[in-house]
Design brief:
By secondary structure, this protein is α/β, with parallel strands linked by helices. It has helices at 12-23, 56-65, 80-83, 87-106, 140-159, 187-195, 223-234, 252-263, 287-293, 301-314; strands at residues 3-7, 27-32, 47-50, 70-73, 111-117, 162-168, 170-172, 202-205, 217-218, 220-222, 240-244, 250-251, 269-272, 281-282. The strands form four sheets. Strands 3-2-1-4-5-6-11 form a seven-stranded parallel sheet, with helices on both faces. Strands 12-9-14 form a three-stranded mixed sheet. It has a two-stranded parallel ribbon with strand order 7-10. Strand 1 (3-7), helix 1 and strand 2 (27-32) form a beta-alpha-beta unit. It is globular. It binds uridine-5'-diphosphate-4-deoxy-4-fluoro-alpha-D-galactose.
Length: 316
Amino acid sequence: MKQILVTGGAGYIGSAAVKALVEKGYEVVVVDNLSKGVKELVDKKAKFYKVDLIDKEALDNVFQENEIDAVMHFAAYKAVGESMENAVKYSDNIKGTINLLDMMVKYNVNKIIYSSSAAVYGEPKYNPIDEKHPTEPCNYYGFTKLECESLIRWYGKVHDIDYVSLRYFNVAGDSGLGYIDPNALNIIPIIMEAATGKRDKLIIFGDDYDTRDGSCVRDYIDVNDLVRAHILALDINSSEIINLGTSDGTTVKELVKAATDIVGKEFNYEIGERRKGDPAKLVASNKKAKEILGWKPEKDIKDMLESTFKAYNKNL
Ligand code: UFG
């Protein structure tokens, strides 16, 4: 397998994957509509197309001009809150995936690694969450991810395409490329903005949950560990759905404490209301990832905070 098409290759995770693939000696073709992605993050050795996956003709051209062996599909809109206000926009996640699968059939590409999410599980019925946990997404974003998983599974059956759908828990850390989210909605970028003076303060969304310190527990996984799992997934010969997390939970208050140590000074935060739709605890079982991919995470939450802080500091 030589040539890999990376959709969303200019984004936070996609650009990290492109870098890792290039370093491993793969030829990489990137498509990205640059709605959130940054072209400068795309490794210079990769071939870049500014294409939106809903533009089927443009996508056809990409497949025609290249000899693609496998696809890593990251491109998607991903803001949970926005997805509950604009289903029309988030339906493009589904339309784009159908177009991509159609092209894979047309050009006989028979392997896809898909960027799915723990959002497919919805409110957890138990922790740690394994892949057999029921899938009942509680936002439209999560629904689009689950729907795309189903489409991929069916195309896989009908057209003999191998797939690995990877359900990410909370991806964090800097890949080394210094991606700064221009409109930070996730906790670690928000903490870094508060710590570097880019925002007044962090608001902790509730501290009356049934957790060890009352704030929500999440499973943060380093972006480079995550990317490594995708590269391992290219080499397996079965179709799988696999969680990617560390199996280790961190509370929001623990994040604040660890970030204070790393930044070396206190920053402003206050306890606010709970955010609607936030489960108290989401932690992955990563047993399957270990067994099937031979993968295990190497970075812990301190490493993730450190690399993110470095990236934010550089950008001040
Ligand atoms: N949080 C705060 N204050 C903030 C922002 C977040 O206290 O200003 C808390 C949240 O309440 C939550 C934790 O920090 O407990 C993490 O919140 P994020 O918004 O960073 O992440 P989520 O867990 O809500 O969701 C993330 C991704 C989703 C993905 C999900 C899978 O954004 O796309 O992980 O676990 F589906």
